[in-house]
Amino acid sequence: MQIQWRERIVSDPAVMFGKPVIKGTRIPVDLILEKLAAGETTEQLLSAYTSISAADIAACLQFASESVKNEIIKKVA
Q1: Cα-based torsion angle of the residue sequence 46, 48, 50, 54 in order, rounded to the nearest 10 degrees
Q2: Are 36 and 45 in contact (CB under 8 A)?
Q3: pTM for the whole thing?
Q4: Collapsing DSSP states into helix, strand and coil, what is residue 9?
C-alpha cells in the first residue's frame, strides 16, 4: 500500500511561512528529510517527535521524491 503524501503534507502561509509541514503539526518536511539524511532512523524520529507516525515520515520521502522528479539539473562549470 502506497502512502498518499497529499493527505499528510500541507502548506499554509499561516504555518511556518508556508513551508510544507506534516499535517496537524509545525514539523517541516525539510527537517525530517535533513535528519534522515544525517542518519537518524525512523524509530529515533518517532521518539523525538511523538506527534508524527511512520506513515508521516514515508509521506515526507514521497513528497521529496515527487518534488524533484521533473527537476532539470544544470551542470555548473
Answers
A1: -20
A2: yes
A3: 0.87
A4: strand
Please classify residue 63 by burial: count the beta carbons closer than 10 Å to its beta carbon, then call 0-12 exposed, 13-18 middle and 19+ buried.
buried
| Torsion sign over Cα 43, 21, 26, 31 | positive
Query: For the segment 13-38, what is each residue's pLDDT rounded down to a tens digit?
Result: 999 999 999 999 999 999 999 999 99
Least confident of 27-31, 40-44, 63-67, 73-77: 73-77
Cell 499528510 -> residue: 8
The three cell numbers of residue 73 are 539539473
